[in-house]
Each structure stands twice: as C-alpha cells, then as structure tokens.
Amino acid sequence: LKLLNEVRLAMAENQFRLAYQPVLRMEGRGHSGFEVLIRWLHSRRGLLGPGAFLDAMEAAGLHGWVARFVLETAARQARGWLDHGLDPGTIGVNMSGSQIRADGFADDMLAVLTAWRIAPQRIVLEVTEQGVIAEDPRVAAALARLHAAGVRIALDDFGTGYSSLAHLRRFPVDVLKIDRSFVTDIGTDAGDTAITRAIVNLAHSLDLEVVAEGIETEAQFARLSALGCDLGQGFLLGRPMSAEAATEWLGGVP
Ligand code: G
Ligand code: G
Ligand code: MN
Ligand code: NA
C-alpha cells in the first residue's frame, strides 16, 4: 500500500522515464532501432527498473496508464528526433497481456501514433509468451488489428515458454527475440547453441526477423552472427540510456 501511494505521487510528479536500448544490425553493427524500457526516477532510491513497481501497478489497475505513458512518451520522443533530422529507426515497446487485452488498446495506440505522426511500421510491439498465453480472443483481435495497420509484432523472451511454436500460428508475428538465457551460454552449452540455431532457422523459414538479446561479449556476438541472427541487443552493443544519451547516440546534440 505504501508502494502504491508512492507510485501515485510519482505519476503526479512525472518521475517515470523511458530508457532507450539500441538494437543493431549484426552485419556492420549499424543502428536499427531502440527498445524502450520504463524506469522510475525515485527521489531517494534513484533509478528503479520495472521489477520494483510494474507488478504492483498492474495489480492496482494502472496498466492502462503505463501503456499510455510509454506510447505517448516514445512517440513524442521519436517525433522530436525526426524533426531534428535524426532517424531513431524502429521503436520497440513492451506490453503485457493485461495491457493488450484492455478495451480500446489497439485504437488508442494507433491514435497516439497518428497524433505524433509516427508511422505504425516504426513500432515493434514486444509481447511475451506469458502475455499472450491465455487464449484470449481480445489479445488476438488487438494484435491482428495493429498488425493490419502496420505495427510489427515481436515475441519477446522467445524459447522460455512451453508453447512458443503454437503462438507463431495463432498470432501475426514478425520478429522473434531470442531470450538472453540462451545467449548467455552460447558456445559453452551445446544445447543452447543447438536451440538458438533451431530458432534462427525456424524464424527465417517463416520469414521472421531474429533478434538476439543480452549480448555481453564479442564471443557471443561472433557466434550469434555466424548462426544468422539479423539483429542484436545487449550491454556489449549499447546499454539502456536516457533520452539525452540516445540523442547523442543518434549523432545529435542533447
Ligand atoms: O528494463 P528491464 O531490463 O529492467 O526490464 C525488465 C522487464 O520489464 C523486461 O521483461 C521488460 O520487457 C519489462 N519492461 C520494461 N519496460 C516495460 C514497459 O514499459 N512495459 C511493460 N509491460 N514491461 C516492461
Ligand atoms: O524481457 P526484455 O527483453 O524486455 O528485457 C529487457 C531487459 O534486459 C532490460 O531490463 C535490460 O536492462 C536488460 N538487458 C538488456 N541487455 C542486457 C544484457 O546484455 N545483459 C543483461 N544481463 N541484461 C540486459
Ligand atoms: Mn523486451
Ligand atoms: Na526479452
């Protein structure tokens, strides 16, 4: 309850931020886009990750507020970059099942994009298997509507759930993000390497793009590159950064 009171105060006092983590093309390491990650700039405790507050906000019914904050902030930021001649590439946003199944989610998202003149094709909606695991027709309908409007759908943390393959049939997926647990042991664990190779081959045969997450070393990068991953993300390539640092990353003046 104390946390929730603090959360409500933080909402009123604009203490929520987005961090921007670069996604690069494996080939040539050129910028491809950003994944946006919510943060709470707490007055005493500093910068907090979603683990410290997101579940509590969802349980309190604040997931709609979070969805709106993330989309609005990311779209406004992208518009600012574009107006300054900077190209942020794709913008990945994470949404939970309860966010996606909320009434009007798809329409609200498209309205925000229209308001900021952001092409839906720029947006990658990252959903986890847990997020879509309930066979909820509202989730399927929202994803279908967004996909038809041009929004790209990514399955996040791919490989960690137990019905990943079924989701590829049921949802209009464009991108697979290989969970970092596989990336961590790539090269040292034959099983993880084999699974990663299988995921890449499966994705490509379905015409999907593959993102490797959590790349921390050059050795991991080299192996994932050899396996054919299209895109990469991780501390080696770029940490989640503030909007100002992301502006510099794009070659602009913060
Ligand atoms: O940013 P960090 O690595 O701490 O993220 C931890 C988890 O929280 C990840 O699974 C990430 O997908 C999720 N997450 C980060 N930002 C958001 C957000 O804005 N909305 C939702 N629903 N999840 C997020
Ligand atoms: O589940 P999702 O992929 O959305 O999680 C994103 C989270 O992963 C963010 O909290 C981000 O801080 C974290 N992250 C991003 N790159 C790395 C990395 O190279 N190593 C580790 N350990 N975490 C990472
Ligand atoms: Mn993600
Ligand atoms: Na992930």
TrEMBL record:
State the superkingdom: Bacteria
The EAL domain, residue ranges: 1-254
Q: What are the coiled-coil residue ranges?
A: none
- The protein here is known as EAL domain-containing protein
Which organism encodes this protein?
Rhodoplanes azumiensis
Full-protein interval shown: 606 to 859 of 866
